[in-house]
Design goal:
By secondary structure, the chain is of the alpha+beta class. The protein has helices at residues 13-23, 27-43, 205-209; strands spanning 57-58, 63-71, 74-81, 88-90, 95-96, 99-103, 120-124, 129-134, 140-143, 150-151, 156-161, 164-169, 186-187, 193-195.
């Protein structure tokens, strides 16, 4: 399965057409053109994912944890996506999309401190927020959702073409101690639990976060 709109956004078609045209001239260049089309198709792969039964916020992206920091009464966890990672992003928790906004900016490498000023798309679900951040080679952010949509934990919410970073701003009820991953740890979108509150008697978090014991 390919990421939504991969053909429509003209990533796969051009190298495939060029490869077919070059094949009539040179088998080597034709094969290279088809190889490029194959790489683009592989990059935009979209495998099925199943959130774990345990409650808690799952990763919105495949890759390595590159940011864990407290911002006032919120905690931000960022995941850097390398070129070999799946680039389809997923909802970390159940929720309702309140707003999807595009913020213009630069295209610094997503692991650079200056990437804080990069182009990005904010998917605001009120209780939490997912931020899709463009990188040096990621010039296209494709959100799949709109305001008013209901999300289940693990639902697809968008993809970023060719490398980048995705941040999750956790709900206020999460503290730094609730984060289960460390900087540099490899995670998978929709499957790796990034944070889980310590459950207490009468705690509604299981229902709020999706999943069960």
């Amino acid at each position: 399965m390919l990421a939504r709109g991969s053909w429509k956004f003209k990533y796969l078609l051009p190298p495939a057409v060029v490869g077919a045209a070059l094949l009539a001239i040179s088998s080597l260049w034709g094969v290279l053109g088809f190889a490029l089309a194959g790489f683009v198709a592989w990059f935009h792969r979209d495998p099925e994912r199943s959130p774990p039964p345990e409650w808690g916020a799952v990763s919105p992206a495949d890759g390595k944890v590159s940011v864990i920091r407290e911002e006032g009464d919120r905690v931000r966890v960022g995941v850097f996506m390398n070129v070999h990672n799946v680039h389809v992003n997923r909802a970390p928790l159940d929720g309702t999309v309140e707003d999807v906004t595009h913020e213009p900016g630069g295209h610094r490498p997503a692991f650079d401190k200056e990437s804080e000023h990069n182009e990005r798309v904010h998917v605001d679900c009120g209780d939490y927020e997912v931020v899709l951040i463009a990188g040096a080679f990621a010039r296209r952010i494709h959100p799949y959702v709109e305001a008013g949509e209901e999300l289940a934990r693990g639902d697809r919410i968008g993809h970023i073409s060719f490398g980048s970073r995705v941040d999750l701003v956790l709900p206020e009820r999460y503290d730094r101690e609730d984060v289960l991953v460390e900087d540099g740890e490899t995670v998978q979108a929709g499957e790796t639990v990034l944070a889980r509150r310590q459950r207490t008697e009468g705690d509604p978090d299981v229902a709020l976060d999706g999943g069960a014991e």
